[in-house]
């Protein structure tokens, strides 16, 4: 029968885990607020301005769709807003065209509305429209089909409102309230890349200590953190759009180019590193021999992630990160030439792949990166 002391320890452990989870959730919510607060500001400003333009400048008696289109332009995606605006307007025009034709042929009503929406979305799919275009075409068809009997001449104001809202939305995000691209990217990149580097250090420690459970915990944390790097890609896309089209942010183009170039390869490196950690756990559970060079290689790889982020922040060419990546590849090559089991060999292969991804993130070309990693692993660099 459990004693009161053991029961108290279990209760204390549960409370500690709950506190840690609540603290982690709070930190994540705060980071998201820091990242997306600018979107809320942009949406509010765009909604107000588009209403004023549609109602007071153009004299549209039904200006509701203008702020809706403006907010849709801003909120549909943090990046690719120019393309989203084109899709939004194209969806409106397509929905109006399909709806007008079908109302003339079959009239209005419940089954007519369903048929009109079905055909509008089908037409958007036929022209290879994305989800945004299909949603807008279907939404426009619903509004026209249901409001046409009570509101005359809705079609032209709806199209004008879409144009006004889309234009005002772009004006706000590119000129009036553009996000600070570097500040926004750094705010997301710092926790994401710090976590990546930290988990590599923890996985190296688990391997050196022969602790399979510790490796499993690292793998669980990396799975949970995948959305962090996904959010980094989204934010970099938005920042890149701003520095390309917003005159007030043009001077940041060169710095953003490094992040844009690196984020895709960094994401691949993270995914390959997760496979590496999975193999580490398997090797430890199977009691395979662990050459000391393998934990050292993983630790160097984690340090390369830290250095790359630091050199990006300092707007310097990432020479130190490249050197550390190649050092990780050399250590991994030595480990492979020592006594090592099957899972350990697979782990070395995955580490070399991740090193190649990280080297590509520093700006090295595909073929050159492959040669550099191969030579380093063979002890030639």
UniProtKB/TrEMBL annotation:
<keyword id="KW-0812">Transmembrane</keyword>
<protein>
    <submittedName>
        <fullName>FUSC family protein</fullName>
    </submittedName>
</protein>
<feature type="transmembrane region" description="Helical">
    <location>
        <begin position="88"/>
        <end position="111"/>
    </location>
</feature>
<feature type="transmembrane region" description="Helical">
    <location>
        <begin position="117"/>
        <end position="147"/>
    </location>
</feature>
<dbReference type="InterPro" id="IPR049453">
    <property type="entry name" value="Memb_transporter_dom"/>
</dbReference>
<feature type="transmembrane region" description="Helical">
    <location>
        <begin position="36"/>
        <end position="58"/>
    </location>
</feature>
<keyword id="KW-1133">Transmembrane helix</keyword>
<feature type="domain" description="Integral membrane bound transporter">
    <location>
        <begin position="52"/>
        <end position="172"/>
    </location>
</feature>
<feature type="transmembrane region" description="Helical">
    <location>
        <begin position="64"/>
        <end position="81"/>
    </location>
</feature>
<dbReference type="Pfam" id="PF13515">
    <property type="entry name" value="FUSC_2"/>
</dbReference>
<feature type="transmembrane region" description="Helical">
    <location>
        <begin position="159"/>
        <end position="179"/>
    </location>
</feature>
<keyword id="KW-0472">Membrane</keyword>
